[in-house]
Amino acid sequence: xxATAFILGLLGSLHCVGMxxxxxxxxxxxxxxxFVKITQIxxxxxxxxxxxxxxxxxxxxxxxxxxxxxxQQQISIAIGVLMILVILIPQKTFNKYNFSKPLYKLISKxxxxxxxxxxxxxxxxxxxxxxxxxxxxxGLVYMAIxxxxxxxxxxxxxxxxxxxxxxxxxxxxxxxxxxxxLNTQIRQKIQKAIxxxxxxxxxxxxxxxxxxxxxxxxxxxxxxxxxxxxxx
Length: 232
Description:
By secondary structure, the protein is mostly helical. It is 79% helix and 0% strand. It has one domain (2-231). It contains eleven helices and no strands.
């Protein structure tokens, strides 16, 4: 499942370049010294992934507590269904029930803090920008969070979000170096590909929850002691 997180990050970063791209273009990197520039970009990405890892830990914990009640398979199926529904339900319907209203105050604070940091050029600036950037709302980050809940443990949840973050690195780095490098046609094609991929991930989560005994994709649930010993 970690591979799906990485691909989601990779595909998503094309969408991210549109969303968080302006932050990447505005990063106050040192344009004269290449080594300093690479170090600054590295700190920015490391901090962004650290923010994702924190989210992975939080939502992995939620997944773990649901698991303790024996809901792991139901959670996996529910999350798969949710992912598919998010893609199928028109955007207008979502806008009617705006779930992130309470978050807006917090988000505007994050954005203000980002604006302040983008004007500075100190060493910790890149860390702060990256870390705050990781908490900006983004549909694909929400999808990855779903995955972290379904992962069902702290470490798996964290790894899922780290894999997602790692997937976003190649294109975000290219954006920092080249500015706005994607033409509209390529972007449109990618925007069409993302929902298809999210539906595929949703189906994978449903299959995993069904426990059909398909190796890696839908392993049988571990029910008794003999099974547990066999798995170890």
